[in-house]
Write a structure and sequence with these properties.
Keywords: ATP-binding, Nucleotide-binding. This is ATPase. It comes from Candidatus Iainarchaeum sp. With about 250 residues, the protein is of the alpha/beta class. It has one domain: P-loop containing nucleotide triphosphate hydrolases (Rossmann fold). The chain has a nine-stranded mixed sheet, with helices on both faces. Strands 1-2 form a two-stranded antiparallel ribbon. Strand 10 and strand 11 form a beta hairpin. The mean pLDDT is about 90. It binds adenosine-5'-triphosphate and magnesium ion. Adenosine-5'-triphosphate binds next to helix 1. Magnesium ion (MG) binds next to helix 1.
Length: about 250
């Protein structure tokens, strides 16, 4: 099986070199755990290190803020967009019925899963996208009247993404202690992998961790890995290393 490497320091070696190609992975974590940074790093490295064009569908944060925040890590997204290596699709404002000034966005007349899929499909053809991010699934659910409709939309989305052959990360919030990884109870089953990010405040230090909860067709690490957010993005460590340093 071909692997899609994230290029995130310390991560790929934990999953036999990367995500299974053409599959979807759910990245779950509480607020501020680093989901958006992880996803952007995956897309950015995709272009810069592996020559894979990518699509970032943002349903929570507005694109201009993501572009601005990610410059802190030295990731100039605008430059990638200008060279058609990246397309950011804005669904953040359509979600609340407001027009977006972005070139690629969902209409303010209402968010529609079919329109989003069509836009993803068009973009995939236009730039030859190999990687996709959907940030976040709960924000997608915002537009539906009832949870059954959200579940149907998630199923449709995951099926079509698989058909398209893009390798996808979807994000979801998770509350600490809850024994589920998505909000609607099916996300973790329709995806091929589940990554969980935690932010633990224990003692006088806060600790960030990443755990690979599942990765189909992969002999993956089962450890809780300490992670760091540095000036160059996310770095994943091994537990032994932490002990050595302590
Ligand atoms: N330059 C930086 N250096 C170190 N840590 C940073 C830096 N920039 C952001 N962070 C940390 O990353 C967090 C934001 O990460 P990110 O936006 O990826 O989280 P998230 O999981 O997507 O959150 P949300 O659920 O709110 O969308 C900040 O709260 C901060 O703790
Ligand atoms: Mg986020």
């Amino acid at each position: 099986m071909d692997r899609v490497a994230t290029g995130i320091s310390g991560f790929d070696e934990l999953v036999e070199g990367g995500f299974p190609e053409g599959r979807s992975v759910l990245l779950s974590g509480g607020c501020g755990t680093g989901k958006t940074i992880f996803c952007t790093q995956y897309i950015y490295n995709g272009v810069k290190k592996f020559g894979d064009p990518g699509i970032y569908v943002t349903l929570d944060e507005r694109p201009e803020l993501i572009r601005q925040d990610m410059l802190r890590f030295g990731w100039d997204l605008k430059k990638l967009e200008d060279s058609d290596k990246l397309q950011i699709i804005d669904g953040s404002l359509a979600k609340i019925g407001m027009p977006s000034e972005e070139e690629f966005s969902m209409p303010a007349t209402g968010f529609d899963i079919d329109k989003l899929l069509l836009e993803i499909l068009r973009t995939t053809k236009r730039i030859g996208a190999k990687r996709l991010v959907i940030d976040s699934i709960p924000a997608l659910g915002f537009n539906f009247q009832n949870e059954n409709d959200v579940r149907n939309a998630i199923l449709k989305l995951s099926y079509l993404l698989m058909r398209m052959g893009v390798t996808t990360i979807m994000t979801s919030e998770i509350s600490d202690g809850a024994n589920k990884f998505g909000k609607y109870g099916i996300e973790e089953y329709v995806v091929d992998g589940v990554l969980v990010m935690h932010y633990l405040g224990i003692g006088t230090r806060s600790n960030r961790t990443l755990h690979i909860r599942k990765m189909r067709a992969t002999k993956h690490s089962e450890d809780l890995h300490p992670i760091q957010i540095t000036d160059t993005g996310i770095a994943v460590h091994r537990v032994e290393k932490e002990y050595e340093d302590a």
